[in-house]
Amino acid sequence: MPMLRQDPLTGEWVIIATERARRPETFASKKEERVSPPPRVENCPFCPGNEHLTPPEVLIYEKNGGETKEKDLPHSASWNLRVIPNKFPALERDPNAPRTMPSSRCELFLSHQGYGVHEVIIETPWHNRHLADLSIKELEMVLKSFQERTVALARDEQLRYVQIFRNHRQEAGASIEHPHCQLLALPYIPPLLNKEYTRSHDFYLEEGRCLLCSLLEKEEASGERVILQNENFIAYIPFAAPLPFSTWIAPREHYSSLEVSPEGWERDLAPLLKEFLTRLSQKLEDPPYNLYLHVAPLRSSSLSYYHWHMEIIPKLTIVAGWEMATGTYINVSRPEEAASFLKTPEKEVIEALKR
Amino acid sequence: MPMLRQDPLTGEWVIIATERARRPETFASKKEERVSPPPRVENCPFCPGNEHLTPPEVLIYEKNGGETKEKDLPHSASWNLRVIPNKFPALERDPNAPRTMPSSRCELFLSHQGYGVHEVIIETPWHNRHLADLSIKELEMVLKSFQERTVALARDEQLRYVQIFRNHRQEAGASIEHPHCQLLALPYIPPLLNKEYTRSHDFYLEEGRCLLCSLLEKEEASGERVILQNENFIAYIPFAAPLPFSTWIAPREHYSSLEVSPEGWERDLAPLLKEFLTRLSQKLEDPPYNLYLHVAPLRSSSLSYYHWHMEIIPKLTIVAGWEMATGTYINVSRPEEAASFLKTPEKEVIEALKR
């Protein structure tokens, strides 16, 4: 029998399509047609030696003793990570922009100057090393940069929310091959976040505790959808996952944003994230994916009702007419089956993690 | 300067990315790699002669004097259109299913037996004739079948909404090549519709009239986003279109659903829809698209605040991390420019419409 499951954070019903369910291994993408890129690409604007092709960085993690002599090779780049303004920004800061967003129920055509910040986080000098291939130390730097940029942008009171996201491979929307993620700082709260805040707040008023804390407790107790966990983080496939292998990674202790996360949070997350991405890559043949954070609004200090987390959505099916029309999903993979498939590491995963 | 525009029906902000805007003609898809399918495919379950491969039809439009003698050829099929139950339904009807959807703010894992109906509308016996290639008469039949099935399903009081949608070509999610659309009848109101109803209702209470009626009046007056219109329908690109070339087609008079649409509505819509789809196909090289209807809930009789319409979303860009994370869009094409590009028919369009 088909089944409907409600996403507790958004209130939306997901159809878990048992009749047309596919076995986890059938989602593996076809790898054979792909060409592995080289460590450095001559005309890639994000590769070392081409720093002049991008706007000056707003944040850089320099290498200790990094040399630029052999600057055409990633291992001799002077930096580990650079954050730069997007050359073709979706939003821009203009000191003359109006301070507040317009709002009116009766205005038919409401528009607003697109105030905001659009940045690119170049995760590594290596053109061919994606998140799963980075060392734990390098991955920590990527996570740290998310926090540093969020804290820096929070100083601008016109900005209300920072959305960090990553498109892995062209099929998931990456227009530049070099490993990077993006950050968009917005003058408003995006609707999906709004929904999560509202539902979490309602739950908090009724139950006196955080909705995601309660969910994590249940997930841990049953374990059937948990993929991985360590002392401080847990990776699991939610009960009402909208798409096959959609995974959430959340801190086990309650923190509402990176702004209020404790010193060293990235050291706890990095090894778990690396292991998750390595398993995903090995078991589903390096699928395209989207990764993003959901956090509290900027400057909201520590909210007791909202719990930040990361979502990773492999792109294994096509979002089509049904999803566009209704804003909901038909998941052709049972969350419990998908989690169990990713739970057991294979020999290659263990080998890859040793490297 | 980038610009934010608010969708009046959902209240959501769309970023119109002027800095990274693309010229309309750059969206044309690459046609050369495609192989045109034959008029009939031996093992296609939707082709004439293979009717036994599908469940028995729930609606059939028979051909006047149609013969089944040469049943392997589409022109001699005995039918023009068949509606059949989906062999792998996302939802099913079970007389023992609970009558109402569960609802609870504090229940963490809420699920429900997936009650509903999933049907396929086989639009034509021809394997290689898509909506734009059908005659006006045939297109009328497709539209009429939407209405007939909606009216029939409305008799089941457990169903609340009928979602009709079409995925054109594999890239837009069509898993079977033979021209068809799908219908899912649901025991709940999908969230996007919910949002449209709520905003329209708020507007109605405040202004005393229908939001879409007001919008259509403004669109007609300015004309800058109107692509086509006839006496009873209008096709235009909305002010805050979420994706390049997203088009709405709406009746100019106020009707809230197909259930309450007047006799002959499909005769007014068919020629306009054919012309729109022909232009889209000619000017953007037959792009993949999703098409769907937004209507009032079943059995809601004539709602003065909601106005049904069709949305056509060509799949020209990749929905990526930003859209998944926020539930909003960055449109890399200005609606006015896209509308103007589709406004003038080219010689081939005029020729195609004569055929």
Question: Could you explain how this protein is built, in words?
Answer:
Chain A has 355 residues and is an alpha+beta fold. Chain A has one domain (3-24, 38-93, 114-354): HIT-like (HIT family, subunit A, 2-Layer Sandwich), CATH 3.30.428. Helices cover 25% and strands 20% of the residues of chain A. Chain A is built from seven helices and 14 strands. In chain A, the strands form two sheets. A ten-stranded antiparallel β-sheet of chain A has the order 3-4-6-8-7-12-13-11-10-9, sandwiched between helices. In chain A, strands 1-2-14 form a three-stranded mixed β-sheet, with no helix packed on it. In chain A, strand 1 (3-6) and strand 2 (13-16) form a beta hairpin. In chain A, helix 1 packs across helix 4 (265-283) and helix 4 (265-283) crosses helix 7 (347-354). The radius of gyration of chain A is 21 Å and the shape is globular. In chain A, 50% of the residues are buried. The mean pLDDT of chain A is 92.
Name its key features.
homodimer; 355 residues; alpha+beta; HIT family, subunit A; three-stranded mixed β-sheet; 7 helices; 14 strands; 25% helix; 20% strand
